Amino acid sequence: MGSPWYTRPRTVVLDNGILQVTLSNPQGSITAIQYNGIQNLLEPLNDESDRGYWDIVWSGQGVTRKKGELDRLSCTDFQVIVENEEQVEVSFTRRWNSSVAAGTLLPPLNIDKRYTMLRGSSGFYTYVVYERPAGWPGFVLTNTRLAFKLNKIWFHYMAVADSRQRDMPLPDDRLPERCEVLAYPEAVLLTNPIEEEFKGEVDDKYQYSGESKDIQVHGWICKDPSVGLWQITPSNEFRSSGPLKQYLTSHVGPTSLSVLLSTHYSGEELMAKFADGEPWKKVLGPLYVHANSAPDAKDWPSLWGKAKKQMMVEAESWPYNFPASDDYLSADHRGSLRGRLVVYERYYEKNMTATNASIGLAAVGEAGSWQRDSKGYQFWASTDEEGAFSIRNVLPGNYNLYAFVPGFIGDYRNEVAINITAGCDIDVGDLVYEPPRNGSTLWEIGVPDRSAAEFYIPDPDPKYINKLYVRQQRYRQYGLWDRYTDLYPNQDLIYTVNVSDYSQDWFFAQVNRKVNGTYYEGTTWQIKFNLDIVIATGSYYLRIALASANNANLDVRVNNSEDPPIFSTGQIGKDNAIARHGIHGLYFLYNVAIQGSKLVQGSNTIYLTQSLGLSPWRGILYDYIRLESPSS
Q1: Per residue in 519-529, pLDDT tens?
Q2: Cα 611 from chain centre
Q3: Average pLDDT over the chain, rounded to an integer
Q4: Apex 557 CA angle, 552 and 563, nearest 5
Q5: How far apart are CA 21 and CA 5, in angstroms?
Q6: Cβ–Cβ under 8 Å, residues 460 and 201
Q7: What does 494-518 look like in DSSP terms, one character per residue?
Q8: Which residues contact 171 (CB under 8 A, 6 or more apart)?
Q9: CA quadruple 327, 328, 332, 338: dihedral, nearest 10
Q10: d(CA 167, CA 606)
Q11: Which letter, b or e, does each residue of 517-527 get, where b requires 16 or more Cβ atoms within 10 Å of its Cβ?
Q12: How far apart are CA 401 and CA 379, in angstroms?
């Protein structure tokens, strides 16, 4: 590809004849992407450090900001690592030591940012290596991502998924004279947008977030000329918290993000907290930044399909064989594991196939601890219709094997840690998950799938509409928390087993009620049910699976709302999924024993009280509730 790189004053340029990428030297920010006749796909009016960059949010010694310090990882040294006819790879580094940190605000972390360009590739790859040797001071890593601020003249159409793509408002529509800020700064009502079609819509970046497993490609399209710029994540092994973790994607700016660690939809439990002296190293990426085009302006819709195909090519090529860092391991330095998962229902004494289960290797821990893992790698696969699975290209190390199965509550964990070595192919045979079960099901509400999507989601206030979500994923509409008060102004929800329909009669979130338009109070929901027979000496079990909790406390009472609760969660959760239009956050499972003497033959009531008020976003998303009879 001729000379694959060259320098200009204070810049490094990578050029393969298809794409030209300009990097600041030695800082390592992406200042320009030239492609298909467009001089810069990034926003040239922004400062050079605010166009394309890796960044982190951290806290530690010297940091006073409550939410942490933003660091765009400006580097101090540049080096060409590989240069030949097939590829060029360059490195921008920053080394930490106590003398360098004196008088500056830098996290105790070594940074190595890499950029790789291949012959014939319509894009470039980038990855970062974070390292802290033993003995360094502790700190907290809250967020890390790759961000692009695209050229607002060209890019107006955003695509996150097949059904989640649209023309977007312009960044100037968020200026004070053109919008009204709603309950938090990220959400605005467009009152005087430049383009009339957006008037009366809500814009909020959280409406475009997605689960890790579903956001391997997203980006923006320029319609004329037909050009797309996409972020492709070929593997999620370096993303924290497993396949269901929700991350921001693209939003008005035009902005494109690949977030690899964040507290969104999880809270401080997902902060990577490093103790004094704790060593750590992790490779994040490579990510592929892909540009594509169509020969005719009318063909711009084809760019999304082409980007999806390119994502499949990248995923099938993982792990890559070209990254030059010794810390990135290719396929021959990795191992694999396979087997079959079945579910054994103890009460019914039979095995069932674990179809479409998610099964993965993650750091050694307790059952379900993978969803709170912020430091390690994770490797996930899905079981087939027979429950068989294969997890390939696993980095060497010690792991537990975890799983969760649609239709069943709880988490599977293999009790014995598994050691993966280079070249291994471990067959674990048949594994059996025995979900919590004491007796037969007396009644159930919902579907055990770690989501509240099956419950009743109201129409939004007509003043606060996002047109994309009128007929799909309606939980992403703004302000649904206040719709509970509209529907239940004086009395809380009452659900009658065998009469009510959870898709119509169970509000998707147990939120607080707005009182007198000024403050919020906790709510008590009732579940009414009949029992033909009561075993007074037996223990009934109430299984409560939560899809989310945010600064909530759940009290459970039986047949007398004035009695002390038979169970209380204490204050749990900080995932803020209700405010951020999520249908789940972190998963909780509670197994509540109810003595038979608390129940009566005939009519019974269980009271579920979320007792903490003050905020509209304190609350609970239920996944599934089940009452079981005593074991026979």
Answers
A1: 899 999 999 99
A2: 28
A3: 96
A4: 110
A5: 9
A6: no
A7: EEETTTS-HHHHSBSSEEPEEETTT
A8: 152, 252, 253, 254
A9: 110
A10: 47
A11: eeebebbbbbb
A12: 10
Is residue 6 classed exposed, middle or buried when 0-12, 13-18 and 19+ CB atoms within 10 A define those classes?
Answer: exposed
Block residue for tokens 């063909």:
299
Q: How far apart are CA 35 and CA 20, in angstroms?
A: 7
Q: Which residues pair with 83 in a beta bridge?
A: 88
Answer for the pair 500, 506: CB distance below 8 angstroms, yes or no. Answer: yes
* Bond preceding residue 319 cis, omega within 30 of 0: yes
Distances in Å between the alpha carbon of 61 and those of 65, 95, 111, 156, 325?
11, 17, 18, 41, 30
For 294-434, strand residue ranges (E) read: 335-345, 350-353, 358-362, 379-382, 388-394, 397-404, 412-413, 418-420, 425-433
Q: Going by C-beta distance under 8 Å and a sequence separation of 6 or more, which residues neighbour residue 332? A: 422, 423
Question: ω before 225 within 30° of 0 (cis)?
Answer: yes
Task: Give the separation between CA 89 and CA 265, rounded to whole angstroms.
Answer: 35
pLDDT band at 347, cuts 50/70/90?
confident
AA identity, residue 500:
S
Which residue matches tokens 């860092």? 325
Q: What is the pTM of this model?
A: 0.95
Tokens for 236, please give them: 């999620």
* Cβ–Cβ < 8 Å for 205, 186: yes
Angle at 462 between CA 461 and CA 465, to 5 degrees: 90
Percentage of the chain lying above the pLDDT 90 cut: 94
